[in-house]
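Example record

Each entry pairs one chain with its bound ligand, nickel (II) ion.
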Amino acid sequence: MKEIDLIWDLWSSYKINTPSAGKIQDLLKINKEEYFNDHIAFRTINNPHIGKERIAEIFIKYGWEIRGEYHFQQKKLDAIHLEHTKDINLPKIFISELILEQVSSFARELLSSTFENYDLCDRQKLNIGRKHPVNFTKYQALVKESEYASWLYIFGFQPNHFTIYINNYPELNIESFVNLLLKERISMNTFGGIIKGHEKFGLKQASSMADIKYIKFEDRKKEFAVPSCYVEFAERFNVNGELFSGFITSSADKIFESTKNKK
Ligand code: NI
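Structure tokens for the complex follow.
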């Protein structure tokens, strides 16, 4: 399988949980060969058999390598980003993980036991989603403590977001694109302002609010609406004569809020 097929495969399954991604694909007439995607983000926990390095291994086999490390103190996350060594037009991969030693024993035990039998050894597993039943009472307790953890509990392993690379569309900038999305009634994440970051730091980002998915819980008769995945938008700029390729933690911190319930 070629790298581009791997990415397109992930994009196709991501659209199932993220109808707004399909809308945006139509709006921009995105096709497979285009450099439309800045990065793909995954979430996990810092457990040796499913931690961020384990997910990274799959991409390393396809020619990506780790280029950056990040820490989100408040959200109790560590993250890495990977870039492809040969083809700079392939998306970066952003993988974050919840630091279990820093969460409550309830969250730690729930997540460890839930994902105990998951194994992320090959590319098909990047889309494995959730294979366990979910409990509403536990979910609600988890939401209170960590929205990030509650998303992982419900959705398991699949891309959390794709990121439209605005530089690929010379007629657009992130501001004009956001206006286009608002006209299409795509709801935007306004935590910390719609547009995060600044040209002088090399990166401006925005994101939609996550789409909604109805989930069946083992302890509830009716399905319950839960925020699923969102789409991010990134415009990159030169810093000291070079196109900035990293991430800004203070912006990413606000982007994480895109899977927060709007209520
Ligand atoms: Ni992102």
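The mean pLDDT is 93.
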